[in-house]
Amino acid sequence: AKYRIDQVSLELGIAPTVDILMTDTLADQLENPRPESENGFSKEQAKASSHAQPPITIVIGNPPSSDTVASDAPRTIIEAMMDDYRPEKSSIRGRQNIQQGLSNEAYRFLRWSTEKVLKTGAGIVSLIMPGSIATSVSFSKVRQWLDESFDAVYVLIFDQDGRADQRGNSLFDVLQGRLVLMCVKLDGSTEKVNGQIHIEDI
Description:
Blueprint: H1 2-12, H2 28-31, H3 40-51, E1 58-61, H4 76-81, H5 105-120, E2 123-130, H6 140-149, E3 152-159, E4 178-185, E5 196-201
Parallel strand pairs: 1-2, 3-5
Antiparallel strand pairs: 2-4, 3-4
């Protein structure tokens, strides 16, 4: 995409107005970049770090939905933020493991995105997420946290879970269900808002 934008800009004789940067969004380094060097990637990393700081009023994406972490970079910052999605230890009985689903990368991207908008004070997060976020007990704390942190949450379910024989026409060629999650934070609202939740299944 970056190469294509540069090509079109060159053909039209105009300077690019959109930056496309490659970075490890969830790595600590994005928040605490190393000193910039002459290395091209170092300069891009520094630019990505600058763009990742508030104010950020809108985050749109289709994050990877996988339990496999492709990067070995330190992630202490995002892992600490993920505690907001985990239930209190006293509520987990016996061998019950309702945190396993949080190992999916999509939830780390969701927490990162919401943090940026909340720090800004107002904005929208719109991500394609696994369908289980809307129904599974594993994500009840995630749903509660989103409800308390945002003024409105919109859920548009467009792919049912093919593993449960619920699928009709699939938009994405994957077995796992998919939905669009949109979280809206209004300017001037308090942190604990208990917002409205809107769900539509198409």
